[in-house]
Amino acid sequence: MPKTIVTEGRTTNEAIENGLKELNVSKDRVNIKVLDSDDKRSFFSILAPRVVKVELTLKDEGIKKDTKMKREIVISSENMQKARENVERFLEEFVKKLPEGTTYQIENIDIGINVNIHNSKLGYLIGYRGETLYALQNILTSVAAKGVNQKVRVILDIEGYKEKREKTLQELAEKMAKTVLRTKKSVTLEPMQPYERKIIHSKLQDYPNVETVSIGEEPHRRIVISLKK
After folding, report:
1. Is the CB of residue 162 less than 8 Å from the CB of residue 126?
2. What SS3 class is residue 160?
3. Main-chain phi, psi angles of 7, to 5 degrees
4. Which segments of the chain have a pLDDT < 50?
5. pLDDT at 110
């Protein structure tokens, strides 16, 4: 259920501002209902202290941080070995269909398996903003899960794309943060993958006077960068 609070002030605007400060949000993220407005005062109460009450309810926009800590499950050695064998068999056949000279590396990590594919001619496997790469990553995760009774993630990278993309996103985050500070207006970025949104959040987590939130639903979820309240 959306969070609702009631706040007071000498004027409607003051009551609203008090509520926004308490919720730590901007005005566009709440529904406002005036419970006791400025124009309801009678002649006999004109000398009494003015008190205006408003009700603020957070809009249900699916706003939440993408940086929530998740409890990681330790993968058994048997499941890890089985998942790795599944991925290796798939890649052996898959690479045969790729340009000559394509190679790959597989590495076990705590949450699953890292896969790196190398060839400068594989841009079509990355796609626009990495869309094809992430689709292939999902396929590899499904391949790894065959006959495995634990969730084993496959993290795929192609020709170092993710490292380059991370640098680009960090630069974008800093540039947009400076824009927000200069214009005093919020900036909404284009929809991004969860992995990419996490980079933005992390980069600006300790950036002075700005904050980030994610809004919307997948696959159109995006980040809003705004001034701290």
Report:
1. no
2. coil
3. -130, 165
4. 1, 38-47, 62-70
5. 83
